[in-house]
Amino acid sequence: MTLKVSNLSKRFGRKEVVSGVSFELKEKTIYGFLGRNGAGKTTTLKMIANQLTETSGQISLDGIDPRKDSLQQKRIYLVSTEHWLPANWSMAKQLKWLNKFDDKFDGEFAEELIQLFGLDSSKKIIKLSTGYQFVAKLIAALSVSADYVLLDEPVLGLDAAQRKKVNQALLLAYNKRPRTFVVSSHLIEEIAPLLEEVIIIDKGTIKVQDAVEHLLTKGYTLTGPKHLVTELSLGKTILETSTLGKTKQVVILGNRPPQLPSEVEMTSLNLQDYLIYLTQEV
User: Fold this and answer.
1) Domain that holds residue 190
2) Are residues 78 and 113 in the same domain?
3) Which of 207, 204, 152, 123 is nearest to 31 (CA)?
4) How far apart are CA 246 and CA 227, in angstroms?
5) Residue range 130-148, pLDDT digits in tens
6) pTM
7) Is the distance from CB of 125 to CB of 88 less than 8 angstroms?
8) At CB < 8 A and 24+ separation, what contacts does 59-66 make?
9) Helix (H) or strand (E) holding 57
10) How sure is the predictor about 268, in pLDDT bands with cuts at 50, 70 and 90?
């Protein structure tokens, strides 16, 4: 199974928000859909989920346009900041409705997640905090039978402890029934351990799609005495530099050196640094 996006564009008036976007989502894979605010992430996800109509381009799921086939569209589920079920319903009422709407809805798993997050399922969604409103939508998304679940900023309004639970819930859902998850988030390093592939979008265009493991081999970080790190970074493509006292740290794009002085420590490039490099203002 493959969800394919081809030359997708969206224009609001004279402003083109998404421009010729193309990528593929394989089955049973966790993707990171990354970019700065305003890069076009939410617009793209909404077009895939048929919540926005594209200006041009195509979307296909196993060769079929899901917007023209209700069964195919049902295989795609988007969680965003907007409510598509009544916010004056309780979580319990929403789950009952979803169970009728989706004959493969996993109500037992939904109850497990309610316990994990400590959510009061009898309380109206609109009466919950912003963070818990999103938790309620996340629980529904992880329990439906959709094969492609799109999560737009799933940790919005949550504290650090709850954000960890979101990662835990996502892994529980994946391990119980492997499928494709697309996670769009600005807290990149927190979700990085979950991701298998990354799609980076900037100013409405795709900059890169690659396996995380491969991306992180494209650079490295050196930390050590200022004079040694300065010497080792001469002529290199430097993404970031920081100095604290006599210690200097540089993030470098390129192949790793075969040998280093014992005083210098080398670590892997991280996704945050790579994103900043790819999307930096010129």
Assistant:
1) 2-214
2) yes
3) 152
4) 9
5) 888 989 999 999 999 999 9
6) 0.89
7) yes
8) 59/3, 59/4, 59/5, 59/6, 59/8, 60/3, 60/4, 60/6, 61/1, 61/2, 61/3, 61/4, 61/148, 62/1, 62/2
9) strand 56-61
10) confident
